[in-house]
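User: Hi! I'm working on a homework problem where we have to compare a predicted structure to a textbook description. Could you give me the structure for the chain below?
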Amino acid sequence: MKHDHTVITSGHVNDDDSTQPSASSKSAMAALREQRLPFTIRIVNDEQALQKAVRIRHAAYSRHLPELARNLSQFEPADLAQDTIILLAESKLDGSSLGTMRIQTNHDQPLVLEQSVTLPAWLRGQRLAEATRLGVTPGQVGKMVKTLLFKAYFLYCVENEIDWMVITARSPLDRQYDALLFQDVFAGGQFIPMQHVGMLPHRVMAFEVATARERWSAAVHPLFSLMFEMRHADLMLDQPPDFLAASQSGPSRGHLHGRGKG
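Assistant: Happy to help. Predicted structure tokens:
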């Protein structure tokens, strides 16, 4: 079910099933402040971009989870899974990699976290998108990149009619998702060992997409303006027209797969 709200992304409006923006949508777009970023965020669509994402991911995990990072020096089969995309943030100055995130929806198969837990009834039958393998460069630039990766994740979910964003977070990183108004999937905020992160205990949390603006407005959230009142043309989330299905041979074929709305 498509949610009845308007979200402006990288220069286009997604508000109903029509191909042309409505007058109200055009007005909403004009009212938004344009903010240019010192980096771009795009969907990986070739082997070179995938390798850049893998390198920044490996570097980030090496700083905090070196044992897990040993298995992340190469791309993972999950990177090429059906209904999965990888976001890559790159510096406009020199093209260096600044951050990455992998997003998988449950359109074709269960989420990777479902290898470790059975989701409660209120999430069954819902369209879900799980973010994994988040990694950013250290310092203030990395903090900015992380925030805009979250916005890109949110916008991607809106465009693909996702009901709930779902993540797993280890301590103390789970507090960041508390601050973003994610809620616990399991009572008590318990930490559960997760297979896809080396059986490290993680908290499973979810964020309802349709009510995001209302909840953030009610909370007077400090990121409300950035999320809902600014347009970032540097978030380039359109699927490239030449996205092709990846074969089991992987990126050696020189291309990756991708899917838009399913």
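For your comparison, note the following. The CA atoms of residues 69 and 77 lie 16 Å apart. Helices lie at 23-31, 47-64, 66-69, 140-159, 174-179, 212-218, 224-228. Good luck with the assignment!
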